[in-house]
Amino acid sequence: MPFWSGLSAESRETFWRSLQALSATRIVISLVLLAYLMFDRRDVPTAGLYLYTETCIAYLVMAGAFALACLYVRTRFLAQVVIQIAVDIAVISVLYMAGEEGRGSLVILYLFPLAGAAILAPRVLALFSAALVTLFLLLASLYQVFMGIGGMPITQAGLYGGAFFAIVLVVSHLAGKLIRQEELATRHGADLQIQLAINQIVIADVADGILVVDRAGRIFAGNPAAQRMLGLANGDSGFALSEVAALEPVAFAFSEWQQQVGPASPSGAARAAFVTVKPYRDSGGGTAGTAAWSGRRDLAAHLKLRFARVDTVDEASERCVIFLQDVTAIENQAQELKLASMGRLTASIAHEVRNPLSAIGHATALLAEDLHEPGQARLLKIVGDNVTRVNRMVEDILQLSRKVQPNGAPLLLGPFLNELKTEFDETQGVADDIVWLGNTGAVPVRFDALHLREVVINLLTNALRYASGGVGSIRVYVVTDAAGGMELHVQDDGPGITPEVRAHLFEPFYTTSSKGTGLGLYLARELCLNNAAMLDYEYRFDASGFGVRAASGRFVISFAQPLGARGATANRKATT
C-alpha cells in the first residue's frame, strides 16, 4: 500500500487520531438520529418506522465497534477506513429510502463519509465513494419518477452529486497539502533534532567556554567549560554578570563590546578582551545575583573573551554569546618561548650592542665640549637621547638574566611602601599628597625587595604619566581576596587602558609612548612570575576611590599565599 507505507510514523499517528475522531463523530450522529426518531416521527412513514429504528440501533452498535477497533486494532488502516465509509453510505442510503418527507434533509449526511474518505483515503477511493452516492441518488430519483412517488427531482440529484464531487476534490486537495506539510515538518524536525544533538556534543566537549546572555548581561545558559572557568555550578542562571563581584570584569568587557559594536550591527565582532576572574568574599547582605550564584568563590582564572550577537526578531529576545578561553597555559608557553629567545639575544648583546653604544656616547660627549652652535647642540642632543634610550633598552633586556635567584625572605609591605613612596616623591619631584598610600596589610609576603621595588616604581611611573596630578590621584593599597591571598593595587584617575592596548599590554617592545622601550611592564611581570606572583591589569566596577560604582582599571600584583595564612592553615589542620 504505497499510500500508507510512504508516510512517516508521526503522520501515521495523525491518521489514526483522525480516524478516532471520525468514529466518535459517527457515534454522535447515530445518537442524534435516534433522538430525532423519538421526538419527531412525522417524516418517517409507519411502514418504514421499524426499518428506520432497527437501522439506527444497528448503526450505533457498529459505530461503537468501529471506535473500539481503531483504538485497539492498530493495523490495516485503509481497510478499516473503507469498511467504515461503506457502512456509513449504506446506512444513510437505507435511512434515505425509509423516509419520505425528510429525504432532502438526510442527503446532507452524505457529507460525513465523503469528507472522511477525502481526508483519510486516497483520492481515487474518495471519488469512487462520491460516484456511488451520486449514482444512488440518480437511481433513487428515476425509481421515484417511474413509480410515481413524489421525491427528489433528477436535476436536484445531479446537482447534489456535482456538489459532492467538488467537496471531495477540495477536501482531498487540502488534506494532501496538510499531509505534505506535516511530512516536511517531520523531516525538518528530525534534522533539527540531529543537529541539536550534534551541537550539544560539540558544545559540551569543546575546550572554550560558551556563555549565552541577554543585552543586560543576564546569564541564560553556559557549557561545562564556561561553568568551570567562571566557577559556576551546574544550572546557575538568571542573574546578571555585574551582580556578582567576581564576574564584574566579564561584565565590564561585555559592556565595552556593546558600546563598540552598537545596536545597528547584528553580529558584529570586536577585538578580544582579556580579563582576570578573581576570588571574592561576600560583603554581608549580598545581592540577588550573588544569591543565585552557587558556584566557587575561590576561583582565579585569566580569560580571553570574544563576543557575538545572535540575530533575533526583536530587541526583547536579543541574545549574545560570550566565548571564553583560558589563556594561562598559552601565556606560559609564550613566556617560555620569549625567554628562550631573550636568552639567545642577551648572550651577544653585551659585545655586539653595548660596546658600539658606549663609543657613540663617548664621541657625542667629546663633540659637545667643542661644538656650541644651537643647531649642532640640538643634533648632538638628539644623538645622545637616542643612545640613552637604546642603552636603557639593553639594560632592561640584560636584567632578565639577573633575576634568576630571588631573595625569598619575608617582606612587610608597610615599611617597604612608605620608604618607596618617600623615595619616589623626591626622585620625581611630586607633591606628597599625590600618591595616596592606603592599607598595607599586616602579614608579610614572599617577594624579593629589589624586584618588588622595580615593579612598583615602574607602575607608579606609568600612573604618574596619565594621572590628573590632583590630591590622591594615584592610589596604592593592599586588599585580601576570598582565598586569603594578598593583592597590591596601583590605580590612578586617568582615562584607563583601552581593550585594544590591553590585549598587548605585557608584550615585549610594545609601547604607546614615543619615549618608551616597551619592556617596562613586560619586565615587571617577569619579575613577579619569578617571585611566584602575578601582575595583571583588571577592569573593575569600583565602589570606592574615584566615584561610586564607576568602571575603572588598576594594576594588581597577586602575591603567593602569605606566611601568616600558611601558618593558620597548618594550625587548623593540626587542630582538626
From TrEMBL:
Reactions the enzyme catalyzes: ATP + protein L-histidine = ADP + protein N-phospho-L-histidine
Q: Which domain of life is it from?
A: Bacteria
In this chain the PAS domain maps to 202-236
Question: What region holds the Histidine kinase domain?
Answer: 348-527
Top class in the EC scheme: transferase
Q: Which SUPFAM superfamilies match?
A: ATPase domain of HSP90 chaperone/DNA topoisomerase II/histidine kinase, Homodimeric domain of signal transducing histidine kinase, PYP-like sensor domain (PAS domain)
Protein name, entry field: histidine kinase
Q: What is the lineage of its organism?
A: Bacteria, Pseudomonadati, Pseudomonadota, Betaproteobacteria, Burkholderiales
